[in-house]
Design a protein that fits this description.
The chain is an alpha+beta fold. The chain has two domains: about 80 residues, Orthogonal Bundle (Helix Hairpins); about 160 residues, no CATH class. The protein is about 55% helix and about 15% strand. The protein has ten helices and eight strands. Strand 4 and strand 5 form a beta hairpin. The radius of gyration is 40 Å and the shape is elongated.
Length: about 280
């Protein structure tokens, strides 16, 4: 391998400083390194650059002996081939690992979409969709009123998130109401206290009473009805996770959330305030 003038190989003047020579060498090494330059001639060019730099560093401006150069070239090609083999083996190992992960993911999703888990998830999805519809139908239906009798009054006042003060009272039918902006002494004097409710699920919107010739109402806080516009959408998570995110991690997370958290939420919704009785009796009980 003949490289000629080592200064020309590095592209510098014969009077170049050591700093200029190093800078040119590093730039050419980056450009022609076989890992970055896939040109067939890059390996030989890279070897010529190495040889030229060593000649200049050793104060030799003539070519190396032919045998020495050939030995270096052969050694370099052998090292390069070993490096390529190691890199190919590493890539194959990575591809194999990804195939295993993909196979496991597909098998896991298939298991979630079959058998008892499928039945479990879909049962929650369809029942949640039913509850979503019932809640919104109930929301737009007319109001009903039911007379209640106060069993006990709370003695503490709490702050609501909209800066109202609220107090707790319990009716004789064992329902609890967080009532806003009132003093318990006022309610103790009123007669015919009524709960304004939705007709199907009997969700209390407010309490109403007559104060002399005036009819007043008190908002009820911390109830499902108070935040149902947002909470009702939780009933749709199982359905959405099944039909719109069934091929990726969203389905896995959605299935887990649906089968445990949303199921618990649905059970709480039905058990509290006897909603399961109101639901299946269409509000008659």
């Amino acid at each position: 391998m003949q490289i000629g003038d080592p200064y020309k190989v590095l592209g510098v003047d014969a009077n170049a400083t050591a700093s200029e020579i190093r800078k040119a060498y590093r730039s050419l090494v980056k450009k022609y390194h076989p890992d970055k330059n896939k040109s067939p001639s890059a390996a030989k060019q890279f070897l010529a650059i190495q040889t030229a730099y060593e000649q200049i560093c050793n104060g030799v401006t003539t070519e190396f002996e032919t045998n020495s150069v050939r030995h270096k070239e052969t050694q370099f090609e052998q090292d390069l081939e070993k490096y390529k083999q190691r890199r190919q083996a590493a890539r194959e190992k990575l591809r194999h690992k990804k195939r295993q992960e993909e196979a496991y993911r597909l098998a896991f999703i298939k298991r979630l979409k079959s058998g008892k888990i499928k039945l479990w998830h879909l049962s929650i999805a369809y029942f949640g969709m039913l509850l979503f519809g019932v809640v919104w139908i109930d929301f737009f239906m007319g109001e009903s009123q039911q007379e209640i009798v106060v069993k006990s009054y709370g003695i503490r006042t709490y702050g609501s998130i909209d800066d109202h003060s609220v107090q707790l009272l319990q009716s004789t039918d064992n329902r609890y109401f967080w009532c806003a902006d009132f003093k318990s002494e006022q309610l103790q004097k009123v007669q015919s206290l009524k709960a304004i409710e939705t007709p199907w699920l009997h969700q209390v919107k407010a309490l109403s009473f007559n104060d002399g010739i005036y009819k007043k109402s008190i908002a009820v806080h911390f109830s499902f009805y108070w935040a149902q516009i947002w909470l009702s959408f939780l009933f749709l998570i199982p359905l959405v996770s099944w039909y719109f995110a069934s091929a990726d991690i969203l389905f896995v997370a959605g299935s887990f959330i649906s089968r445990y958290f949303i199921l618990a939420f649905i059970l709480w919704f039905l058990i509290s305030e006897n909603r399961f009785i109101h639901l299946f009796s269409f509000g008659l009980l």
